[in-house]
């Protein structure tokens, strides 16, 4: 594995477990078995490393939105997106927890403000494009509702309920958007 990716992976894991504020770069160095100099060779600062992690998470979320096949109907594409979101929530739970924490913590939110806005606009525009094919008169509001539903599900699953019925919620949301 290349050292840059190793640093990102270790930092992502540590930031997820301990929090960004509570993870010194020395801890990243120790776990990744690299020097601070090597970290600074790849990243200007701890904030720069954080921005790279957030950027990678954004790429993952954009990929989820683009998981559907263009030959599918709009409802089939929406169904595929829902399936993909739920699968990613389960398989990358720690990454999504970190993402949520970064967006809600005032200090990291300030550091990531431009990237948060960019991601939000990407997701909103892709969602509006899809809902425009389903119901052009209500595409804007349906997009905001859909995103809010998925965000609420993620928040409850990742941070609030230990026994959150994710499979049942998935089944219900798929039924709602069938």
UniProtKB/TrEMBL annotation:
- Sorted alphabetically, which keywords does the UniProt record give? DNA-binding
Q: A Pfam family name for this chain?
A: TetR_N
Q: Record keywords: Membrane included?
A: no
Q: Which InterPro entries match?
A: Homeodomain-like_sf, HTH-type_Tx_Regulator, HTH_TetR, Tet_transcr_reg_TetR-rel_C_sf
- Signal sequence coordinates: none
A GO molecular function assigned to this protein is: DNA binding
Query: Which residues mediate DNA binding here?
Result: 24-43
Domain named HTH tetR-type: residues: 1-61
Checking PANTHER family in the record gives: ACREF/ENVCD OPERON REPRESSOR-RELATED, ACREF_ENVCD OPERON REPRESSOR-RELATED
Q: What is this protein called?
A: TetR/AcrR family transcriptional regulator
